[in-house]
Amino acid sequence: MQSHKLSIRRRVYIGCMRALMWAAGGLTCALVLFLIVYILAKGLPNLSWQLLSTQPSYLEDTVGILPDILNTVYVVLCTLVIVLPVGVGAAVYLTEYASNKKLVAVIEYAAEILSGIPSIIYGFVGMMIFCVFFQMRTSLLAGSLTLVIMNLPTIMRTTQESLKTVPQSYREGAFGLGAGKWRVIRTVVLPGCVDGVITGCILSVGRIVGETAALLYTAGFAHVIHGFFDGLGTSGATLTVALYVYAKEFGEFEVAFAIASILLLLTLVINLTATLVGHYFKRRREQ
After folding, report:
1. Are the beta carbons of 77 and 141 closer than 8 angstroms?
2. By C-alpha distance, which of 230, 222, 249 is closest to 65?
3. CA nearest 223: which of 49, 79, 51?
4. Tell me: the pLDDT tens digits for 237-272?
5. For the segment 220-242, what is each residue's pLDDT rounded down to a tens digit?
6. Cα–Cα dist 169/272, whole Å
7. Residue 198, C-beta contacts closer than 8 angstroms, at least 6 positions apart
């Protein structure tokens, strides 16, 4: 009789927990769908070719976000060119070469702490170091270097976790065939975890595209078209900074929603690309 009561109580408990989990999952999905639909419904009607292909003109009272789009591309490219070799190289060294486990643990702990620091603090420190100390002034290059510091821990830790998924037997087999350390890493380890590395890199692009606070201090607010190398040395607003400027400073909420819809679509594309690329390399590795 007592065991029967315990069984009933257990089933009721499991049923309640299942209902709560379904409710939490449903609420999360509903909020995400509401956010996506609301932003797209407000932003897509305001998108036009003139908005996307021109720069703002205060004399003609027109608005264009082409400089902001180009500045976003410049920042993403400059940040990735620096952070990917450094982050992946640091992860390979810490996982495959470093013999001092205490030092590795300290570096990993420091990287985890850096990953949790608010981005506005990165922006303030980047302004003091790059804009003031190194006299780069407010520029896209200073903003890119600040984003490098922000994304370096994420790239490093993601690559480390991917490297650790490669079985140790693969390394031992390659060493048994007479391969050197670097050859084993290049031909066995990295191909075995390339899906995780590339997925982490693509997701870091999403963080770079969506960053605002750090760039407010370092990149500036200018809406002028420049070439790539000229633009890195000048002030420029990315899409997220432009969204803040148009919504907060100018009160142009139609333009702000249009930029928000572009950023939302970019985020969806980046996450979908990361998922597809990860699955592709995973299937290729299993074959």
Report:
1. no
2. 222
3. 51
4. 999 999 988 888 788 889 999 999 999 998 888 888
5. 888 888 888 888 889 989 999 99
6. 33
7. 274, 277, 278, 281
CB 142 within 8 A of CB 220: no
For 47-90, the pLDDT digits (tens) are: 888 888 888 876 667 788 999 999 999 999 999 999 999 999 99
pLDDT of residue 2: 53
From the number of C-beta atoms within 10 Å of its C-beta (0-12, 13-18, 19+), residue 247 rates as: middle
Structure tokens at 47: 């998108």
Structure tokens at 234: 């000048």
Of residues 213, 273, 255, the one with CA closest to residue 66 = 255
Nearest C-alpha neighbor of 68 from the set 258, 205, 267 = 258
**DSSP one-letter code for 44:** G
In Å, what is the CA distance from 109 to each residue of 105, 116, 158?
A: 6, 11, 14
Q: How deeply is 265 buried, as exposed, middle or buried, from its count of CB atoms within 10 A (0-12, 13-18, 19+)? A: middle
In angstroms, rounded to a whole number, what is the distance separating the alpha carbons of residues 142 and 42? 33
- How far is 55 from 66, CA to CA, in rounded Å? 6
Neighbour tally for 221: CB within 10 Å: 15
- What is the rounded distance in angstroms from the CA atom of residue 199 to the CA atom of residue 278? 6
Burial class (CB in 10 A: 0-12, 13-18, 19+), 47: middle
**What are 119's two structure tokens?**
């981005």
Question: What dihedral do alpha carbons 256, 262, 266, 267 form, nearest 10°?
Answer: 40
Q: Which tokens is 201 given?
A: 């890199």
The pLDDT of residue 167 is: 85
The pTM is what? 0.87
Q: Which residue matches tokens 């400027």? A: 245
